[in-house]
Amino acid sequence: MSIVLEARQVSKNFGGFHAVRNVNLRVQEGNIHALIGPNGAGKTTLFGLLTRFHSASSGSIFLKGEDITAKGPAEVALRGLCRSFQISSIFPGLTLRDNVRVALQRRYGSSHQFWLPSRVLSRFDDEAEQLLDLVGLTSLAQRLCSEVSYGRKRALEIATTLAMQPKVLLLDEPIAGMAAGDVPMIVELIRSVAKDRTVVMVEHNLSVVESLCDKVTVLVRGEVMAEGTYREIRDNPAVREAYIGAGYEV
Ligand SMILES: Nc1ncnc2c1ncn2[C@@H]1O[C@H](COP(=O)(O)OP(=O)(O)OP(=O)(O)O)[C@@H](O)[C@H]1O
Predict the structure, then answer these.
(1) What residue stretches are annotated with the ABC transporter domain (predicted)?
(2) Beta carbons of 93 and 129 less than 8 angstroms apart
(3) 38-39-40 Cα angle (round to 5)
(4) Residues 6+ apart with CB under 8 A from 237
(5) pLDDT value at position 241?
(6) Which atom of ligand 1 is nearest to the CA of 45?
(7) Residue 112's pLDDT is what?
(8) Which of 122, 139, 165 represents a domain boundary (last residue)?
(9) Does the Cβ of 102 fall within 6 Å of ligand 1?
(10) Is the pLDDT of residue 110 over 60?
């Protein structure tokens, strides 16, 4: 299997503090790959580096073998590497369908024109329906985003990210803050969207990681401590110690 996303010796310093230090990461095409680690381990920073929201202090990042270290986030998104935009980028006063239609515009470079008349937006209707169907939100398409549950908003967030047609989808804590009853829905959704693409996810919920992920990279204090299947990293004494030392139950 080929490597679709790779970090080589990547570091990020914030005013002399090493948030990420000499990280090597190889994500195989088609995998669901988790980044885990205690709070402050550098997971979100590494995510920002991979998607070019942060510039690396040193090291290189490759997407499908191409060096993207000097590229911006919009450029890498057009090349197929997209991170979920988080709920803050969802418009609460719009319907779920309109949120997806606005997201679809981004792909056509008109994201700043969200006041486009509905006759123009309607050209995205079919694709919006398909995306809503994919994330199980068809029956709620006409509801305002502000009226639906947090779990549905996270599903909508995934639909708006899929609108960019990513080959590699990065999800930052997709389960965080979710009611327990909504978790299986999002787990199944991630499994389903991962059938046609590679997924990299930061996730604290280890049972979700166990059920979804082919490979797990453990970051501790900005460095890779271990990598392998969930079972391998779970049985790794150094990983257990790092988690227990940080106050987690393992
Ligand atoms: N912009 C910044 N300026 C200074 N320090 C930062 C900045 N962003 C992150 N850090 C620090 O870098 C370290 C890693 O942070 P990061 O958010 O990447 O960790 P994390 O593993 O995602 O943590 P969590 O699980 O709590 O979200 C932390 O000590 C954090 O305080």
Answers:
(1) 5-246
(2) no
(3) 115
(4) none
(5) 85
(6) 18
(7) 53
(8) 165
(9) no
(10) no
The model's pTM is 0.88
- CB-hemisphere CA count at 13 Å for 39? 4
Between the CA of 144 and the centroid of ligand 1 the distance, in Å, is 34
**40 and 22 housed in the same domain:** yes
Q: Is the pLDDT confidence value at 155 over 70?
A: yes
- Same domain for 45 and 155, yes or no, is no
Same structural domain, 170 and 248? yes
Q: Total domain count for the chain?
A: 2
Question: In the chain, what are the helix, strand and coil shares in percent, each to the nearest 5?
Answer: 40, 25, 35
Tell me the CA–centroid distance for residue 146 and ligand 1, in Å.
30
HSE of 107, CA atoms in CB hemisphere, 13 A: 19
Task: Give residue-wise pLDDT tens across range 16-75.
Answer: 899 999 999 999 999 999 999 998 999 999 999 999 899 999 999 999 999 999 999 888
Pocket test for ligand 1, best of 25, 44, 47, 53 (most atoms within 8 A of CB): 44
Establish whether residue 221 lines the binding site of ligand 1, counting it when its CB lies within 6 angstroms of any ligand atom: no
The answer to whether residues 157 and 201 belong to one domain is no
The mean pLDDT of 80-99, rounded to a whole number, is 82
Claim to verify: residue 56 and residue 155 sit in the same structural domain: no
Band of residue 78 on the pLDDT scale cut at 50, 70, 90? confident
Which DSSP symbol is given to 79? T
Q: How many angstroms does the Cα of residue 44 sit away from the middle of ligand 1?
A: 7
Same domain? For 250 and 179 the reply is: yes
Domain limit, last residue, from 165, 197, 216:
165
Residue 59: give the domain boundaries.
1-80+166-250
Same domain, 76 and 177: yes
CATH classification of the domain holding 200? 3.40.50.300
